[in-house]
C-alpha cells in the first residue's frame, strides 16, 4: 500500500505545517463545498432505504475519486507536492480542533456555561442545553479524542497511502458520516452505507492513533500503562469500533472516566464507561488538547516516514 514517494511526503509535511500555522482554510473550504453538493443531491436521491443511501454515497465518493486521480495524473514533481499539500491541508482539522477545545475550556473556567454551550456544537453533535459544566467538559474531551483520529491521523495516513485521491475520498467519507451516518429516524437506513464506510476507513487510523496516545502520554504527564489498560479493557465496549479505541486510550492516559449517558439531538444513548479515573474537568480538557496536538505531530512524522521508506525499505529488509 505504501510506496516510496518522497514528493508526496513533502506535500504531507507542508500540509501539516499549514494546519499548525493557519488551521482550517478560512474561506472557500473544499469540505464545505462538498457538504453543499451532498445536501443538494440528497434532495433528489433520498429514500428511506439502504440502497438509495448507498447510491447517494457512491455517486459523491466516485466523483471525488475521479477528481483526485485526474489531479495526480496532471501533476508532476513540485506540482504534485503542491496538489498533495492542498488536498491534505483541506482534509486536516487538528489545529482547529485544539483551538476549539481550548475555547470551551476557557469559557468553562470563566463560568460562562452559555458561551461553552454555544461553542460545543462546533465539536460534536451533543445537545448542549442538557449539559452542565462536567457534562460539557466530558463531551468536549471525548470529541477531542475521537477527532484527533478522524480529523488528523486518518487524513495523514490516507494521504500517505493514496495521495490526492486517497485523502479526498477519505474526507468525503468522513463528511458524509457526519451528515447522514447517525441513527436518527431519517438516516438509520439512508446513512447506513456512509456509516459503514467510515468505520472501515478509520479502522487502521484509530489503532495507530491509540498507539500514538500511548507513546505521547508522558508529554502531558499521562500514563502509557493506563492508556494500554483502558484500551484492552474498555475499547471494545464502545458502540463505535474506532472511537472506542481513541477515547479509551485518552481516558486511561489522562486518568479520567469517560462515557455514560450521552444526549444527542435525536436520542439519548447510554455509553459504557471508559477508564476508571475521576470525572473530567477543565484542566483535564486542557491536557487532552495538549495530548491531541502531540499525537498530531507524531502522526505527521509517521505519515512522512511511510512515504520515504515505502516498498523500497521493505525490499531492502527482504534482501537481508
Task: Explain how this protein is built.
With 320 residues, this protein is mainly alpha-helical. It has one domain (6-319). The protein contains eleven helices and two strands, in the order ααααααααααββα. The protein has helices at 6-22, 30-45, 50-74, 78-91, 94-109, 113-119, 133-180, 192-216, 224-234, 243-254, 282-319, and strands at 258-263, 268-274. The chain has a two-stranded antiparallel sheet with strand order 1-2. The two termini are 21 Å apart. The model is unreliable at 313-320 (pLDDT under 50).
The stretches of 5 or more residues where confidence is low (pLDDT under 50) are 313-320
- How far apart, in Å, are the first and last alpha carbons? 21 Å
Strand order of the largest sheet: 1-2
- Indicate the mean pLDDT: 91
Features:
320 residues, mainly alpha, 2 strands, 4% strand, globular
Explain briefly what this protein structure is.
The protein has helices at about 5-20, 30-45, 50-75, 80-90, 95-110, 115-120, 135-180, 190-215, 225-235, 245-255, 280-320; strands at about 260-265, 270-275.
Summarize the helices and strands and which ones pair or pack.
Layout lengths: L5 H17 L7 H16 L4 H25 L3 H14 L2 H16 L3 H7 L13 H48 L11 H25 L7 H11 L8 H12 L3 E6 L4 E7 L7 H38 L1
Antiparallel strand pairs: 1-2
Helix pairs in contact: 1-4, 1-11, 2-3, 2-7, 3-7, 4-7, 5-6, 5-7, 5-11, 7-8, 7-10, 7-11, 8-9, 8-10, 8-11, 9-10
